[in-house]
Amino acid sequence: MNTDPELDRSHKEPKDGMLSEGITSAKGNFAETLPISNDKFSEGGPDNKVLSQITVSGRQCISHEGMSPSSGNIPDKPTEIDHHLYEFGSVEYHIQASLSEPNNTYLSISTPLLSQGVLLSHGLPRHTTEMFEGIPPDVLEIVEPAREGYQLTLRLDLARIPRKKDSVKMITQISSVQAAILSFQLKEILRNISNEDLSLGMYKPLKLVYHPSETFFVVKQPTKFTAVFPMRFKENTDVSIATAFFQELMDVGSSTAFAKAPPCHWSPIPPPELRGELIEDLSTNGGFVSFEISSRHVEGKKLDKTVWGVLNFYSLVKYHVKNYKVLNSHMLTPKINVKQCTRGFIQRRIRKRLQNLVERSGYYKIIVPKEVQLGYRRMRKLISLSRSKLLKGRRSLTNKIKRIGSRIKIHAFNRFRRRWLTFPRFSSVTSYTY
Amino acid sequence: NFPCQEVERHNKPEVELKYVTSPELLLNPGCDIYVIVSCCPPMHFNFAHSSSQVLICRNEAEKCLIETSINSLRISLKVKQADELENILTKKFLRFLSMRAEAFEVLRRKPVQGYDISFLITNYHCEEMQKHKLIDFIVQFMEDIDKEISELKLSVNTRGRLVATEFLKQFV
């Protein structure tokens, strides 16, 4: 992304799932933005693409592919950078680098909470140290308090990020900060449900929003939580494929091998836990999928996986039905090697089948058999035979006539003989066409 | 080879036109005859012979319509679809084939209404192709469709199972 530093672009309308950029002000020359290869990041998943495209100041380059400052792409003079990046229409990133601090880049994040009704009891900073375990403090530092309008501000020294394999892990961790914030919010919710709700004996469903238009509900019950996902699809084909997937999910979940996994249910109608919710939240065409999460699924390290699985269930279903990427994130599902979606698979298979059928249909065409080709020669033989016979017959008759012919001379008999007693000449055999 | 009686210098498959003024071209004119034949259990075939067509039904969901005329023949098939997924797979597969009908020559681009796929066989096809093998091809085609739809459905379910297994593994 090369930008004219003096160009003042207007803010672009952000689209769901798409990165959009608004350059509010810029001075000096920009270095090239070096996109980090993003094959491991899933669309809409925890590892978003935003922070993988970081524009840095002139002296420093971050490169996943091992570009070094000596590569020649770096301008000589330090620059100032001020970028606003938007994702999913509601998540905002603010990247700043100033001349006064050439080694530091500031990254501020603003993301809507999962649920507006639930605030983090101790604020974000308490959990951010857990988010960035393994990153040295000289690379990343949390700025307290966060910049105005943002929930978290990080100070990054990009030059200190190692260039070898560790860089991938570090960059992945940094770029998934938005997803990590939401995960911590859900963990808070699961840990500290409001006591008022319990005392009333009513377990009111909590509506959570991970992505716009993808809301789900969490219902607290005495011994478990129930996460309910209303499924909506744009096409009927997706509905059918997804319904088949949900049936398989229920079957696999009820098997003995997965007895420890949260029980999964699918129903075309809203479950009783969601009674009283708004109709617009309960109108679906793919039914409702619910997971019963018990205390053993949120103990210790399992809490992370459970929260991650719940937050990314929609992405998983979309991937299975439509998306076309390999899910190889260690945070989501370690080893799904299914590279292509169901719809793409169906299309490929049909195309292959078509080729087989076309090949087979070609075999039923007539290729003129050899007997017909020989027919011309045979006819030639027949004609030549009949001609010789005719000539023989003619000669014999003529001879007979001559023998029969007496000394009595009949007037005009010769003329009669020439006209009526001669055999017709046949046309040439070679001009006979079959 | 039968030039069109209605339009000068035209030569069209009469089964597609079905001119009211030329019913004799559709062959076998007559009253409706329904013949119920039970071939072997549990299959029961209903034959409906009406004017120029023969309708063979296994049940309401599976049937075959054969329409004849002096210079052409049309065979329409309705394939069994047990559930919504099979319905979608069948529609996709047969629409894919119909859109590439020129590769098969005897396939009709648009199926007859009420059916999933149609063949149109004209006198020219009979001249170019060996008739007995053409019949074999159509029979084999019908068998392949059923087999392919079943395999597609199985593979979709298998993929779903695989993804579900991988998803639930993280909780175990």
UniProtKB/TrEMBL annotation, chain A:
Keywords: Actin-binding, Cytoplasm, Cytoskeleton
Cited SUPFAM superfamilies: Arp2/3 complex subunits
Spans annotated as Disordered: 1-25
Superkingdom per UniProt: Eukaryota
Keyword Cell cycle: no
Biased composition (Basic and acidic residues): 1-18
Record localization: Cytoplasm, Cytoskeleton
A GO cellular component entry from the record: Arp2/3 protein complex
Annotated PANTHER family: ACTIN-RELATED PROTEIN 2_3 COMPLEX SUBUNIT 2B, ARP2/3 COMPLEX 34 KDA SUBUNIT
The name this protein goes by in its record: Arp2/3 complex 34 kDa subunit
Organism: Escallonia herrerae
Automatic annotation (TrEMBL), chain B:
Pfam families: ARPC4
The name this protein goes by in its record: Actin-related protein 2/3 complex subunit 4
Cell compartment(s), UniProt: Cytoplasm, Cytoskeleton
Keywords: Actin-binding, Cytoplasm, Cytoskeleton
Biological process, per Gene Ontology: actin filament polymerization; Arp2/3 complex-mediated actin nucleation
GO annotations of cellular component type: Arp2/3 protein complex
Cytoplasm recorded as keyword: yes
Family: Belongs to the ARPC4 family.
